Amino acid sequence: MATKHAGAAALFVKNDERAHWHDQALWFVRVKRDRAAQSLPEWETLRETASAIKAHTMSRLGDYLEEFERNAQKLGAHVHWAKDAAEHNEIVLRILQSHGVKKVVKSKSMLTEECHLNPYLERHGMEVVDTDLGERIVQLLKQPPSHIVLPAIHIRKEEIGDLFHEHLHTEAGASDPKYLAEAARQHLREKFMQADAGITGVNFAIAETGGFVVCTNEGNADLGVSLPKLHIACMGIEKFLPKAEHLGVFLRLLARSATGQPVTTYSSHFHGPAPGGELHIVLVDNGRSAILGSDEFRRSLNCIRCGACMNTCPVYRRSGGHSYHATVPGPIGSILSPARDAKKYADLPQACSLCGSCTDVCPVKIDLHHQLLAWRGEIGRRGLLPMSKKLPMLGLAFLLKRPWLYSLAGRVGRWFMPLVPRFLLYNPLNAWGRQRELPKPPRHSFRELYARRNQKPR
Amino acid sequence: MHDETKSRADILQSVRQYNPGPVEMPSLNREWIAYADRVQQFSDTLQFVGGTCVPVPDLAAVRAYLQNFEPYTAAKFVYSLLPDVIESTRDIAAISDPHDLEAIDLALVPGDFAVAENGAVWVTDRDLKHQRAALFLAQHLTLVVRRDELLDNMHQAYQRLQFEGVGFGTFLSGPSKTADIEQSLVIGAHGPRSLIVFLVG
Questions:
Q1: Among A62, A137, A222, whose Cβ lies nearest the Cβ of B170?
Q2: Same domain, A5 and A125
Q3: B158 with A245: Cβ contact below 8 A
Q4: Pairing of strands B168-172, A266-270
Q5: Same domain, yes or no: A212 and A354
Q6: pLDDT for A347-403, tens place per residue?
Q7: A207 lies in the same domain as A259
Q8: Which domain CATH number covers A103?
Q9: Of A292, B30, B33, B197, whose CB count within 10 A is highest?
Q10: Domain annotation covers residue B175
Q11: Using CB atoms within 10 A of its CB, is residue A109 exposed (0-12), middle (13-18) or buried (19+)?
Q12: Would you call B2 and A94 a contact, using CB atoms and an 8 Å cutoff?
């Protein structure tokens, strides 16, 4: 039986044209990233420095959390602490309700996706509008984002045309990106003007100053919080940097790694509430401190959510973000998700060929493919492998522990395989043979050839 | 309703269970990229991200440029923080609600400094105050930066930045944009549809 990821990926590749288009669209972003990275002679130094800053920050995270809280409060911000998604949602709702908010505009925040904030607020009667164009598209489609930087990368412009025709009354059949983006601009301008509150994510928070930085290209986060009086910023506790000067390193890495831009259009620094406004910062753990305690997986917390590992991943590009059935897909998601729920996401570390390309592009030098391999072991040890993996693994272990049996099986196989009718060999249990031809068995094994070579007189 | 004080204590305690001892903080004190011709680098990079750099000798030249710039000559609502260069079409000091800035056609705002490596200009709310929405509502944005305030890279930028009294500041690099529909670049997402940076001096 196929795992969840494999099953969903099989559906995705059924549409051959779309699967290839998706692959190419993401590879194009990867190429842009390469060009941007190569334009800086100090790129590798930046990556190493970023990784070292994170290692230091994590070693004293408790102190930096407290330092940030003190400084943010001095600036007049309210700081909240949430252990999990439920507490986070409750805090946000309480703030909104106490201000009589009905309409909220939101900029991109993977944390609020992780906490499923939107449906929660909607259940309590609020209108929540995602204002990033890609996020608005998937919101109208009632889908989760399929990529953390390019939320609608899996959708074709014709489909967006149909969607906007239905919701924004654009012309039927129109699919010109410029025309559709203009329609979204008008539609969302109205939402910005009506909003009672703005919610943003946080890219980086600075312990030394009590401020934080939000990066966008569209300007939606800035617009969303500069009109209403109330700004709520939601962030995971791993987003800290000790000093403002460290932003120099991270802002140089983030956009270049994400989209190949030299920097995002807006890198906005918020220190305290806007004049006459109110600022709430919600710090969320939701499993992060547990990851911090793990020697094996700690470094996954260094992630700055650039998406470079997704754009380069041969599995992600060919299976689509939704096949990961997790808030954060791709290589980094396949590490973070099982840390949250190993049983539910046991299949994800297997959705990987261990090619290591993710590790090569990661701007903060997370050893992604090593962690993915480590997760496979962990999932095996916890007994969470499905039978379709467990039984062959047990069989293989039995075989590989007994050299005589291995040798015998090889001999039998080489003799047997060419004789067996095709339908028996390519049976439903043979997942390898589903899209591939088995190799032609050689006449002699390596061992036989080696033994013969040693017998020959030199 | 959960107890936030308890959550705070629990999170801090949980975080502090990881205590590896001192881990060194790397130094940022090294040679970072520098450009022989900063203006050229800034101008090229700004163009790459969809903006335009216009080097001018003085503020009078900014005015002269704008008088031939269609978005300015056609503008009904001009928002200017540099009244010596061009005048606002409304008494902007009297505008207390940022929503009233929605119809800005063109804004002229000073930037503190610019960065050659990424085409960004540092703009704060020091003069904008409660009107920082003007930066994002304007259909067209024009910034003025002194040419001798052009830095090589972001490390230099953070060396000179201080945040005391700066509630809001942004590195602004090019006009607003999106590529969320099939990776096709569209300039003018929610914010300005064009950006000019005048380098003065």
A1: A222
A2: no
A3: yes
A4: antiparallel
A5: no
A6: 999 999 999 999 999 999 999 999 999 999 999 999 998 888 888 889 999 999 999
A7: yes
A8: 3.40.50.10420
A9: B197
A10: yes
A11: buried
A12: no
